[in-house]
Amino acid sequence: MGSMLKNLLRTSPLILLTLVASCASAKLDIIEPLAETPQSVVVRLTAPAGSDPQVVADIQQSIEATLTDKGVSVGETAGELTLDGRVTKLDPGNRFARWLLPAAGAGTLDTDWTARSASGRKVGACSIHGSITGGFF
């Protein structure tokens, strides 16, 4: 086998990983911490007019899946807590540009969250800033 082919086969996994990898980050600012982890929650997420409803639904489903993975029951009615989220900035960026030239197609997502007890009393709050600057996703 020629040395050029050997080198290509050795670097193929690295090339594939580079094509699909992404560079993403998230920052959580806890404004008012929860006293304890809830057993059940209702998640409600709102977004600015003109936001893609499918993107907003995907974000909510991702949050609900993460909570479920952490052992929190997520429902549509009467949870121990209601998590009211508001998208303050939603820019999905450009996947192709992100892959071609990292940071060129950067996307951002900013949200503010308020946790309310069953009686409606505010019991927690946080803000989350997320960004993706590189990769195919």
Name the descriptors.
137 residues, alpha/beta, six-stranded mixed sheet, 3 helices, 6 strands, 30% helix, 42% strand, elongated
Which regions are unreliable across 5 or more consecutive residues at pLDDT < 50?
A: 5-9
Q: Give the H and E element order.
A: HEEHEEHEE
Shape: elongated
N- to C-terminal distance = 35 Å
Average the pLDDT over all residues and give the rounded result: 82
Helix content: 25-40%
Sheet with the most strands? 6 strands, mixed
Percentage of residues in DSSP E strands: 35-45%
Quick one: how many beta strands? 6
Strand order of the largest sheet: 1-6-5-4-2-3
Radius of gyration: 20 Å
Query: Which structural class do you get from the secondary structure elements?
Result: alpha/beta
List the total number of helices: 3
